[in-house]
Write a structure and sequence with these properties.
This is Cobalamin biosynthesis protein. This protein is of the alpha/beta class. It contains 5 helices and 5 strands. It has one domain: 2-Layer Sandwich (Nucleotidyltransferase, domain 5). A 5-stranded mixed sheet has the order 3-2-1-5-4.
């Protein structure tokens, strides 16, 4: 599935990760996710994660490799998007109250009308989902 031309520059990566995960693993997962939807690194606008994890060195360094800072997403904002999450992890539901931290973070950071472009994919220590921001209809 490729991104619409109008979606270029509006991709949000939602990230979940274990504390032992390095930035290089997160970066590789984001690059893999972008490739799966036919997007380029320049299309990435936001790297989002749970607010309590946004200060971790691994996510800060991973976001910085794309010229970004991590976007912290509050627990309430994650929970508000749980209805649009398509992947369910019992472990994450128990810890975070959402089926997928990566999917909920991507959707929440991308805005209220966003949609998933890629459901959660995983590496050994991280998960990544992509959401796209809606683009305004410029036709009269």
């Amino acid at each position: 599935m490729g991104l619409d031309e109008a979606m270029t520059g509006a991709v949000v990566a939602g990230i979940g990760f274990r504390r032992s995960t390095g930035a290089d693993e997160i970066v590789a997962l984001i690059v893999r996710a972008l490739g799966l939807v036919g997007a380029d690194e320049s299309d990435l606008a936001v790297v989002a994660t749970a607010a309590d994890r946004a200060v971790e060195p691994a996510i800060r360094d991973a976001a910085a490799s794309f010229g970004l800072s991590p976007c912290p997403v509050a627990a309430e904002a994650l929970e508000a998007r749980d209805g649009q999450v398509v992947t369910r992890s019992a472990r994450i539901e128990g810890l975070r109250g959402v089926g997928s931290l990566a999917e909920a973070a991507a959707l929440a950071a991308a805005g209220p009308e966003s949609r998933l472009a890629l459901p959660r994919i995983a590496s050994s220590g991280a998960t990544c989902a992509l959401a796209v921001r809606p683009t305004p209809n410029l036709e009269p």
